[in-house]
Amino acid sequence: MAPTQAEGKTLLIHEGRLLDPSQGLDAVGSLLFKDGRIEWWGQGEPPVKPNAVISVPGLVVCPGFIDLHCHLREPGFEDKETIATGTRAAARGGFTTVCSMANTRPTVDSRATVELVLHKARTEGSVRVLPVACVTQGQQGKQLAEFGELAEAGAVAYSDDGRPVADARLLRHALEYARALGRPVLEHCEDPALAAGGVMNESALAHRLGLKGMPAAAEEAAVARDIALAELTGAHVHIQHVSTAGAVELVRREQQSRRVGTVTAEATPHHLMLTEALVLGPKGGDITAALGPGAYDANAKVNPPLRAQADVEALRQALAEGVIQAIATDHAPHTLADKLCEFDQAASGISGLETAFGLVMGLVHASVLDLPTLVARLTSGPARIIERGLADQGLSGLGSLRVGAPADVTVFDPNAEWTVDPGQFASKGKNTPLAGWRLKGRVMATIVGGGIAYAAPGLAVQKAVEVAGA
Ligand code: DOR
Q1: What is the CATH number of the domain that holds 119?
Q2: Is 302 in the pocket of ligand 1 (CB under 6 A)?
């Protein structure tokens, strides 16, 4: 965890634009933290004299971002990422809480592995880590993991992400257990037979490039099945990284009819902002330079694949409407060697924690979303999806600036422009197709439990002052 606030100490975030969609708050004011919790917010003088002040005029102060979907790779794949590097990347990206996926080695399917992740996060992490445990043992799709034991150890949800749960009967039973424990099953929706061998979106472009595609139907068939199972069991199915217009439509129709069960969805910044055309590559960056001009950009290889413009439009519309409740990064760091090879052979995934906010701010600058809606999809939206898990960890109120909530806050400048340089990432994963891109919207500070997990160069030095005599 980030250095948390010492007992009895207070920190004032002074005069920013306080933006908290969970309570309809959007006003200039200050925010006081004490003992790791939000003590007060309002205008004028705080009720007690603070020990320290960070002045944030002109900046937005909102609840800390919550990422429902990221790969921290530890244990087992420390060459790609560790809990230390991944959570540092999260802090730089404005995320105060990340849900770590279970496709590690060993997979997170036992009490011991959940505890290991939590221990590492406590001792080496910069932000909160909430483990997501496997649906099936070893993610093999054969036998269910021990759901009760995993929840007790601290898992907030279940997912075999990286691969689908192909056996519908097994998933039905998983949903029955998850429902009893008040937790969602996070589903990587992909019909394995339909998607087999695909390395990009199935489209005219894929045919031209001679690359095997994954059809939209592979995702949509799985989403339709999962919706049917949510209704059958009354459980909560959360659709991960939704990427096609058809999948969005299935979720929308289900939410409108709302028979039984709950169906929620997340979209990634890359599926909201990029299309399959990026497979053609380069906008700069070391890896693409090394591959040589004209090569396909393996940094744009991701699963589900980047889709067509019409899909991007449908996702944006659904995000604005609230059919998609959360933006989740699917941060998937890989080594250079994993990507520096033929497109067919390259690993799937984008290192996304540090570019997520700047990228999705493009939706606000293009007037697709207003700022409060964007912030809601990064804060209260994801918090609701894992509500019960948060409550079980004593983290109720996360995703809001309510008095008494954990003192997790993100401070950002919506208009600051910057250039993506993977060489500067805290993440070990430099795999992004965005190298060299100019983004508008920058995280300035990330505060976890009242402690500063990240401050942009300049901010803390110039503006965080110890108050004399306090
Ligand atoms: O592109 C992806 N990479 N999609 C996934 O579902 C898994 C992830 C990974 O683990 O690298």
Answers
A1: 3.20.20.140
A2: yes
